[in-house]
């Protein structure tokens, strides 16, 4: 049962995890499966029209918020994000980069690096950057730094997310006033479709849970909502601080595809804003045609990529790896907990 919960939690904690090929024309109705893990086929989800990055940027030049979903660590996703960032900047040089990959309590470390007060290794250490920062997110931050653009650390503090997942949403009431003030007042806004998606993701991999496991899954979902609400709130705060800027937000695709998660909460909080969602879709190795029809609803624009290699074939080794990866540190306690 413990390994079941760890695997389920890993799925959500990892956010249930292109680089468009050069074309002779800006738009095309043909496409082929990407040949390498760096490549992606970028298309309009409605029409299936294949787009270059520049053509996409022209379409999105006047969009308030552009959300680019990713499978964390996928080379094609990160290369595409960097290319879209630069192409949108050419269309709209007032730009803000918002990132799930940094928590709001690391904003001072992000700002210190952008202003030249720290070096990159210091920044990585001070901000708690993800292990794949240099390979995946360095280009985005460096583009912002070189062009004097703000970078928003958009995610909720990891320790608070963990404690909500462990003890439930009432944990926020135990926080010091200054920490609680950084989070949205309505930190657990929800949409029914998102809960259904969460349940489907869990149930597709696991059998029915007992009451204790159901409570844990409920709390895990509340932790997920805290992250989404915090990111939506941080994005809207960035719009207030930079009212004429376009916001680019990078996030795991579970937070944005089907216009759910963070995107749905943005629309709840600010119905008048325009939001475009760009979502990754895996093109199976055995599929000759682009699998467009069943994926249209995932975003306004889709980018088709090769699947990443499967991490494990041995279930016991997978469970042991997940246990090690998400083991609770001895000094990791919540308010009111005992170590």
TrEMBL record:
Q: Tell me the first and last residues of the signal peptide.
A: 1-22
**Keyword Lipoprotein applies:** yes
What are the UniProt keywords, alphabetically? Answer: Lipoprotein, Signal
By its UniProt entry, which SUPFAM superfamilies does this protein fall under?
EreA/ChaN-like (SSF159501)
The record, for Gene3D superfamilies, names: 3.40.50.11550
Domain Haem-binding uptake Tiki superfamily ChaN intervals: 56-265
Q: Which InterPro entries does the entry mention?
A: Cofac_haem-bd_dom, Fe3_uptake_reg_CjrA_prd
Q: Does the keyword Kinase apply?
A: no
Query: Mind telling me what this protein is named?
Result: ChaN family lipoprotein
Q: What is the lineage of its organism?
A: Bacteria, Pseudomonadati, Pseudomonadota, Gammaproteobacteria, Pseudomonadales
